[in-house]
Write a structure and sequence with these properties.
The chain is mainly α. The chain contains 13 helices and no strands. The chain has two domains: 77 residues, no CATH class; 221 residues, MetI-like (MetI-like fold). Helices cover 76% and strands 0% of the residues. Helix 5 packs across helix 8, helix 7 crosses helix 11 and helix 11 crosses helix 12.
Length: 319
């Protein structure tokens, strides 16, 4: 186990380093100058002096060769310094620290709801295969997978925000400031982020359960006269969750991938919206550091998922 974890950590470090290389060099291929964009928004007139541009290029090390810029940035990251934002003119670590709790709050809520309900619905559909419950769950799962997140968000805003006036359309309030307002604000964003994962988890759980309950040891459990609850929960469910766990690991990435659209639609000041605004402003430091942090979280989540296989399935061995 220890050797396996060490190998996976080395592989993860290599993947993260590769991501930093790709992001660092690709964003510099985009047309335009981030300093010109920044000064153009700050200046009341359209004139930008060469002295201002030269001063800012030196301040942000943009006057140095690109490989030197990469070395400076990586050196800062290793020291815990994510750099200075060009657009926001603030420390990137501070910007990320302010917005990460918001994204994690919404994303983890959607993650828990989608997996708990997805496993429950998939389990019920598999156990009651061929009944109206199975038909309803399967149909809704197929619909849920195909729904575009941004389109669903706009529909929910129109119905529950503009027409029924039941939920706030946009914004985010900390639960420590106003818990009930926060709960109302989370309903639509969490629904949008959870719907695809819930549908996918339900389908995968149903498929995996149908495969497991045909195994010999399950038939043996039935022939011993064990109750249905014991057979399903103790013998079948644990093994059938192996592919579902893999989807959970992928769902960690969807927390951040889905947050880009959801936070933009609902005007939520999270990491997704921060990265979207930084891309339009070509804020190199925010894009680089944000992608680095997200990739580290995803690599760690995948490692945890791989290790958890051995607990759910005793037949899995790490060598």
């Amino acid at each position: 186990m220890t050797a396996y974890i060490i190998r996976r950590l080395i592989t993860g470090v290599f993947i993260i380093w590769l991501v930093t290389l790709i992001v660092f060099f690709v964003i510099r291929l985009l047309p335009g100058d981030p300093l010109v964009i920044f000064l153009g928004q700050q200046a009341s007139s359209g004139s930008i002096s060469e002295q201002e541009l030269e001063h800012l290029r030196k301040e942000y090390n943009l006057d140095k060769p690109i490989m030197v810029q990469y070395g400076i940035w990586i050196g800062g990251v290793l020291r815990g310094n994510l750099g200075q934002s060009i657009y926001y003119h603030e420390d990137v670590g501070k910007l990320m620290a302010e917005r990460f709790p918001i994204t994690l709050h919404i994303g983890l809520t959607a993650f828990v709801i989608s997996n708990v309900l997805g496993i429950l619905f998939g389990l019920i559909a598999a156990v009651r295969r061929g009944t109206w419950i199975d038909t309803v769950v399967t149909t809704l799962s197929n619909v849920g997978i195909t729904i575009p997140v941004f389109w669903l968000g706009l529909i929910l805003m129109y119905i529950f925000g503009l027409k029924l006036h039941l939920l706030p359309i946009a914004g985010y309030t900390s639960p420590f400031q106003d818990f009930f307002l926060n709960a109302k604000q989370l309903v639509m964003p969490v629904t949008c982020m959870a719907i695809t994962g819930l549908a996918g988890t339900a389908r995968q759980t149903r498929s995996s359960m149908l495969e497991v309950i045909r195994q010999d040891y399950i038939r043996t459990a039935w022939s011993k006269g064990l109750r249905e609850r014991v057979v399903i929960l103790r013998h079948a469910l644990k093994i059938s969750l192996i592919p579902v766990i893999t989807m959970m690991g992928m769902g960690i990435g969807m927390i951040f991938g889905g947050s880009v659209l959801v936070e933009t639609v609902f005007a939520i000041p999270g990491v997704g919206r921060l990265l979207t605004q930084s891309i339009f402003a070509q804020d190199y430091m925010v894009i680089q550091s944000g992608t680095l942090v997200i990739s580290m979280i995803i690599v760690l989540a995948n490692l945890i998922v791989d290790i958890s296989y051995g607990w759910f399935d005793p037949r899995v061995r790490y060598s």
